Amino acid sequence: MIIISSEILVERPTQRAILLGEGGKMIKKTGIMAREELERFFNKKVFLETFVKVEPDWRNKERALKRFGYDE
């Protein structure tokens, strides 16, 4: 089994609410679809853990960009 922990960053709480959906339905649907696709790709069972976090203005912070591999 492959274990994957993912983190989705957004800049505003309203964006987080959109991604989560009512009662978490949207993030669950997205997670299921992603997990199924990953299982087909790897031909193994996948445990996918997803977090949606709010970090204001992260796209303009050099440290955050470096953390995600966007360094010059």
Task: Please write out the topology.
Blueprint: E1 2-10, H1 13-20, H2 25-42, E2 46-54, H3 62-67
Parallel strand pairs: 1-2
Radius of gyration using CA atoms only = 14 Å
The parts where pLDDT drops under 50 for at least 5 residues are none
Q: Strand content of the residues, in percent?
A: 25-35%
Helix content: 40-55%
* Mean pLDDT reading: 92
> What is the architecture at the second tier of CATH?
2-Layer Sandwich
Which H/E pattern describes the elements? EHHEH
CATH class: Alpha Beta
Shape: flat
Q: Which fold name fills CATH's third level, the topology?
A: GMP Synthetase, Chain A, domain 3
| Strand count | 2
Compute the separation of the termini in Å.
Answer: 35 Å
The multimeric state of the shown protein is single chain
User: Largest beta sheet: what is the strand line-up?
Assistant: 1-2
Largest beta-sheet characterization: 2 strands, parallel
CATH superfamily: K homology (KH) domain
Number of helices: 3
Structural class category: alpha+beta
Domain count: 1
Describe this structure in words.
The protein is α+β, with helices and mostly antiparallel strands and 72 residues long. Helix content is 44%, strand content 25%. It has a two-stranded parallel ribbon. The longest helix is centred in the middle third of the chain and has 18 residues. The N and C termini lie far apart (35 Å).
Quick take:
With 72 residues, this protein is an alpha+beta fold. The chain has helices at 13-20, 25-42, 62-67, and strands spanning 2-10, 46-54. The chain has a single domain (2-67), classed as 2-Layer Sandwich (GMP Synthetase, Chain A, domain 3), CATH 3.30.300.
